[in-house]
């Protein structure tokens, strides 16, 4: 990645929507697709403004058929020996049309990450997908791109409930999984899977070390959180170089189902703040309790501080199975989960003023739901499937509707003050954690009129791959808290 080069950001189109919501709460909802055909357990937005939706292959008949002649055979399936149903889809955000995709091996509770070239890496899963590596190379919405199951490489260790994170050199680290207290890399390194004892130490009677929260820090090291503790990990030497104090409030990872983000990187990019919110009380998973109150606390820690401590605060609601989405402004939206309603998080406000309640939705989004930022600033919600096979006559039925939540407000024209230019990654969202999610605020010069309502802004690119790993990013211009429709750019090493 070129260091500190300048470029001109041409004008972005700002959305100017007035939000009228019940009870004067901000935010509006709309159903984009009334019946997507599958319940998306994993969701990712591509640079072609399409969305990859993934379920599991052994879930039974879905509501979407594969093209004629594209059935898969599974002699071990309890119901479908010959499966002609789609378990992955591609959604075109421009038309809301859906195209079925062919996935052969089971992606149940797997992990993923976009690579530097824009292709989606997908790793692990259940049953025949345990050691599998797959790729999806996105194409134009009218194209025929599809999943490719890699035959020349497999995972060194089976991965189920693991987490992926792209590294500064464009490779990907794959961390943990059920019974896998190791890390490994794609492309594979010579030593294969490397022991990571921290994960074993964080395993309790109900596990709670699954889907660890992995964030790439601007110093090039990794912040890895499991259960209620975190370490700084040097992925080049495969060594823990720092231990952080424990976070109060009980376990936060799967199956206790909290969530985490790294707040926007900005300024000289030397400071990284991690936030961990929500989760279940210890024992609720073992007891299969449905009425144990969710944890309502959030911990906030400056991971790059020489003396880091957790700063605690409470959300408006306790929440499990929620999703934390970085918005183009640098705010965080907390959505989905076992509590009704949605919350917006304002990380730059003082303690006690960081949360505001938004307009609640009407579709329950519980286990296996996802939330992703779209290039136009909306949040795409999909999934919620707490059943082994699709069930529609249940208190919380399998959810096939896809919604979007709009948090954009009107902006007076012309542009006033500084226009921010912010880079937002396209993460792989699953199980209350968006793998690879980050927002980088660029250093900018004041905007200059460029004729016909257009503005020109001088921007300084991120200094290295530790701040912004190579790959495709949504670039948002933000003025007075209002984001533009994003343009996709490719950062290369």
UniProtKB/TrEMBL annotation:
The lineage of its organism: Eukaryota, Viridiplantae, Streptophyta, Embryophyta, Tracheophyta. The keyword Oxidoreductase applies. CDD domains: E_set_GO_C. It comes from the Eukaryota. The keyword Signal applies. Gene3D superfamilies: Galactose oxidase/kelch, beta-propeller, Immunoglobulins. Its main location: secreted. One of its GO terms (molecular function) is oxidoreductase activity. Keywords: Oxidoreductase, Secreted, Signal. Residues 1-23 form the signal peptide. This is Aldehyde oxidase GLOX. GO terms for cellular component: extracellular space. Pfam families: Glyoxal_oxid_N (PF07250). Residues 41-406 form the Glyoxal oxidase N-terminal domain.
